[in-house]
Amino acid sequence: MARVLVTGGSGFLGSLLVGQLVLDGHEVTSVDLLPNAIRDPRLRAVVGDIRDRALLDSLLAGTGHEAVFHCAALLAHGALSPREMWSSNVEGTRTLASAVAAAGIPSLVYVSSNCLWGHGFDRPVREDDTPAPCELYGASKWEGEKILAGHAGDFAATIIRCPTIMDEGRLGLLAILFEFIGEGRRVWVVGDGSHRYQFIYARDLIAAMLLAWRRGTGGVFGIGSDDVDTMRDTFAHVIARAGSGSRIGCLPKGPAVLAMKAAHALRVSPLGPYHYRMIAADFVFDTTRIKAELGWRPTLTNSEMLLRAYRYYAANRAEIAARRDVSAHRRSADMGVIRILKWMS
Questions:
Q1: Distance CA 201, CA 176 (A)
Q2: In what residue span(s) does the NAD-dependent epimerase/dehydratase domain sit (predicted)?
Q3: What is the pTM of this model?
Q4: How far apart (Å, rounded) are the C-alpha atoms in residues 243 and 262?
Q5: pLDDT digits (tens, 9 = 90+) for 310-327
Q6: Which candidate, 75, 198, 199, places its Cα nearest to that of 136?
Q7: Residue 291 CA: distances (Å) to CA of 49, 207, 298
Q8: What is the pLDDT of residues 194-238, one digit of tens each?
Q9: Residues of 46-76 as b/e, b for ≥16 C-beta within 10 angstroms?
Q10: Which of 319, 345, 344 lies closest to 330 in space, CA to CA?
């Protein structure tokens, strides 16, 4: 069994990864700005900042860690300042990479994002497509990739570009959709809902991260589900299986995007430039490379994983509403002006 470090180990993905690692018998160090809810003798949970080089050196230098899984990232939700998000995501990655190199750790696996692009594609997105982020979060992930590329001779860096990560417990902006379905409200798509936007099942992503570490190959990989349904069909699947009285309605794209832009400018909406650019766009990663080089395969479709996430929300709604001091994806996003649309639905 190995000793590994997970950044962002108290977040949605990080906590699932930590749980899998300790279940597999590994010794895990978790670093996060928030406390970790997992209690296990094989877990050392540290509340700390990855920009703190002295802290990282104390955890990594001479301690025999074999790998680092870099899941930590601040999101563009709530009152977080752009400067703080950039500092944490970019300077945090820079500090971590330097500490990993100094400690002689052979492998770092980095969770990147489809937010590297702010436009849709009429074909699957490949690893050699040049990123073109439209907002600060995507730009910070792209900068993180470039920082790791600069350490090519120091350790094997595996970059996994992820679409929306889905599993039981995934909330954030999805909780707004789930509230509409739970209350039987009309669920809206922009345009006719025929666009395809890929998800990735968290357990499938974790499987890929572990494969990347064990093979030690490094490189950039796009990941995501197979057989991606239209968003209209995905929502319809969840509504039908949930026994909800919701119906799907269509908003005209032009006016809807203008309204989203205005709401963002007035700071009354949780949706930003990425969302109003991608709200009716196609985005699917080409997963040929990760399947060929890592032997990885997805296990769930978009519809199956979104239903799992909804059922968790429905079973735990009261407890979710009371949550405090948890990561952005483990609590409900503030609905803001979208509440008006809810009242009209």
A1: 20
A2: 4-224
A3: 0.95
A4: 35
A5: 999 999 999 999 988 888
A6: 75
A7: 34, 12, 9
A8: 999 999 999 999 999 999 999 988 999 999 999 999 999 999 999
A9: bebebbeeebbbebbeeeebbbbbbbbbbbb
A10: 319
Place of tokens 């073109």: 132
Short-list 252, 268, 240, 237, CA closest to 336: 268
Alpha-carbon dihedral of residues 206, 284, 146, 167, nearest 10 degrees?
Answer: -30
For strands 67-70 and 164-166, give the pairing. Answer: unpaired
What's the pLDDT band for 78 if we cut at 50, 70, 90? low
What angle is formed at CA 285 by the lines to CA 163 and CA 307, rounded to 5 degrees?
A: 45
For the chain, percent of residues with pLDDT exceeding 70: 99
Residue 231: name the closest of 251, 211, 260 by CA.
Answer: 251
Domains with residue ranges and CATH for the chain: 3-166+198-222 (3.40.50.720), 174-196+228-281+302-343 (no CATH)
